[in-house]
UniProtKB/TrEMBL annotation:
Residues 193-291 form the HTH araC/xylS-type domain. It comes from Roseburia intestinalis L1-82. InterPro entries: AraC-bd, Homeodomain-like_sf, HTH-like, HTH_AraC, HTH_AraC-typ_CS, RmlC-like_jellyroll, Tscrpt_reg_AraC-type_HTH. SMART domains: HTH_ARAC. PROSITE patterns: HTH_ARAC_FAMILY_1, HTH_ARAC_FAMILY_2. This is Bifunctional transcriptional activator/DNA repair enzyme AdaA. Signal peptide: none annotated.
Amino acid sequence: MNILEYENYQEKILHGDPLFPYITYLCSIPLDFGYVPMHWHDEMEIIYIKKGNGTITVDFTQHTVSAGDIALILPGQLHSIGQFESESMEYENIIFHPNMLISKKTDTCNTDYLVPLLSGNVSLPLLYTPDSPHYAEISACIDANDEICKTYPSGYQLFIKGQLFLLFYILFHKCSTKEPSGKDRSKSLEKMKLILKYVENNYMEKITIEDIANEVGLSQSHFMKYFKNTMGTSFVDYLNEYRLTMASRLLISSDSSILAIASEVGFENLSYFNRIFKKRFGQTPREYRRRQSPA
């Protein structure tokens, strides 16, 4: 189970379609999950904060967000969503593939706008707050798509696509800037993306420091220093946190035994799993399942 699969436990407003890859769902932190671990994907993502406060980390920079804020995550950007102190946050996730906006036959929309954006030659602001210039125009496009998804009238796909083009017209016309190359930072991001994708695909198996260091072509000591300096935590602690997050989802969504779940997410020792789970969530796995599951 990868990041997007566990997110898909949340309520769907509009189900994805291979011919129309646009999906929206609602989430609540910490009600649905404590946080969304650092990950990346090929789709664009809009995070629209509805209530409360939380954090969004993008390419190693953390931002505190509040109700009304809108974050634009570009394909390939490393990002995570978390809780701010003890507060809760409700937010809407909108995920769509840029291919739905890119014409198969090359045109100026591709060459002058979308391709430069996706290749990093043009930059758009990450966050748009209610006090930001043009916020009303930006949020209106998203709100309009949310509204039409309540009824799905004939041709709603055309409407959604039209609002996305309008959104990017506003962003390019009023918000875009040229992006400096930043080659060293780009190399660091690409290396970290390989590490996080390796964890995402292999967390259920035994992973050693030697394994992951070899994956990115670093010595073990260099890898541990790089990961700590970049992520602010050790690799072992990150791996355990990732596994615990996946275990917390399985405790709610499946009927498997706690032993089976511990094994499925990569913990070989049940007592160790129980101990660090309680340290992370303040309750045992059994208590967590009982309290989180619907009555």
